[in-house]
Write a structure and sequence with these properties.
Homotrimer. The chain is an alpha/beta fold. The chain has 13 helices and 11 strands. The structure holds phosphoric acid mono(formamide)ester.
C-alpha cells in the first residue's frame, strides 16, 4: 500500500480487517515497528476522534507524531499552478507538501469539501494536489468526498457485533441544521458494498448520494420501510449532491427515535460522531444499550493502526 485515501487503495479488505482485529487484541505487538519514524497530521478542519485516535495508533506502533492545524497555524496555501501570488496566499502547496515530506515518513491530511464547487470537491482537488507533491505516503483523515478511516472502523464494529452472516445494514439520512459533506456516507457505502451485508440507503427525495457510489444499492425514500428488520442503523446527515450543498427543510421527522428503532430487528444504532442530540438521534436511542457509538470511536484506533502498519511494512 502506497497511500490510503479510499477502499481502492487496499488489495484485500479481509486481510486488513484481520490485522485490525489482531491489533485490537495486542495493540503493542508491533511497538518497535515505527521506531524512528514520524507521522505528520495536518488538519485544515476541526477534529476530535480522527486526531486523537490516529495519534494513539501511531504511538502504539512506536512512531513519533507531529500535528498541525494548518489553516490556523500555517501560511495561507495556494493550490493553483501559475498564479501570481501577489495577494492572499503566501505558500504554494507544491513547496508545502514537499517540505513536510522532509520531516515526516507518512502524512495524514484532513481537508473537507467546500460544498460550493461540486466538480473540485469530487475531483478531490486539495488531497490529490497534496499527494502529487508529497514525497512520502499520504493517508486521508477525511477528504472532500470520503472518510475511509471512519468506514474501516465502522466495518470493524459491525464485524464484532453482528449475529447474522449477512446482516441488514441501513444507512439513513438524518436532519441537521447545517450543510455537511457527503464524505462519511459515500465512504460507508463504498466499504459496505465490499462487505457481506445487505445494504439499504434511506434518504429524502433530493438527497440521493452520487450515483458513482450507490449504483446497484437499494435506495428508499421511505425511512420506515427501509428500517424494517434492520440489524444496524447508521444515521448520518449529508447535504444535497444534486442541489449541491443545500440542506433539508422540514425533515425533522427523519430523526432516529425509539419508535423508529422499534421497526428494526433489535437493531444497533451507529453514528460516526460528533452528533447533534435530539436533532439527528434522540437521547433515548444514543444512550441505549443498542448504541455502538463508543465502540465505533474505539475502533478508530485499530483502523488507523492497521493502515499505518501496512504502510510501514510495504515501505520496507
Ligand atoms: N468521526 C470523526 O471523524 O470525528 P472527528 O471529526 O472528531 O475526527
Amino acid at each position: 500500500m502506497k497511500k490510503f485515501t479510499s477502499i481502492k487503495d487496499i488489495t484485500d479488505i479481509n486481510e486488513l480487517l484481520t490485522l485490525a482485529k489482531n491489533l485490537k487484541k495486542k495493540p503493542f505487538e508491533f511497538k518497535s515497528f515505527g521506531a524512528n519514524k514520524t507521522l505528520g497530521l495536518l488538519f485544515f478542519n476541526p477534529s476530535l476522534r480522527t486526531r486523537l485516535s490516529t495519534q494513539k495508533a501511531a504511538m502504539n506502533l512506536g512512531m513519533q507524531v507531529m500535528v498541525m492545524n494548518i489553516n490556523a497555524d500555517g501560511w495561507q496555501m495556494e493550490l493553483e499552478d501559475g498564479t501570481v501570488m501577489n495577494t492572499g496566499s503566501q505558500e504554494h502547496i507544491k513547496e508545502a507538501a514537499a517540505v513536510i515530506s522532509q520531516y515526516c515518513d507518512i502524512i495524514g491530511i484532513r481537508t473537507f469539501a467546500s460544498l460550493r464547487d461540486k466538480v473540485g470537491d469530487y475531483e478531490e482537488e486539495v488531497l490529490n494536489k497534496f499527494i502529487k507533491y508529497a514525497l512520502v505516503p499520504v493517508i486521508s483523515l477525511e477528504s472532500a468526498i470520503l472518510h475511509p478511516l471512519q468506514s474501516f472502523a465502522d466495518l470493524i464494529t459491525i464485524d464484532a457485533v453482528k449475529t447474522k452472516i449477512k446482516p441488514k445494514v441501513v444507512l439513513t439520512w438524518a436532519p441537521h441544521p447545517k450543510a455537511l459533506p457527503q464524505a462519511v456516507a459515500n465512504s460507508f457505502v463504498e466499504w459496505m458494498r465490499n462487505s457481506n451485508v445487505d445494504l439499504v440507503i434511506a434518504n429524502p427525495e433530493g438527497f440521493d448520494l452520487a450515483p458513482q457510489f450507490t449504483a446497484g444499492v437499494k435506495v428508499l425514500h421511505n425511512q420506515d420501510e427501509a428500517l424494517m428488520d434492520a440489524d444496524f442503523v447508521y444515521a448520518k446527515n449529508w447535504s444535497s449532491y444534486t442541489d449541491y450543498g443545500k440542506i433539508g427543510m422540514a425533515l425533522e421527522h427523519w430523526m432516529i427515535t425509539g419508535e423508529k428503532m422499534e421497526l428494526t430487528d433489535n437493531g444497533k444504532f451507529m453514528h460516526c460522531l460528533p452528533v447533534r442530540r435530539n436533532v439527528v438521534v434522540s437521547d433515548g436511542v444514543i444512550d441505549s444499550e443498542n448504541s455502538l457509538v463508543l465502540q465505533q470511536a474505539n475502533n478508530r484506533t485499530y483502523a488507523a493502526q492497521a493502515v499505518l502498519l501496512k504502510l510501514l511494512q510495504d515501505e520496507k
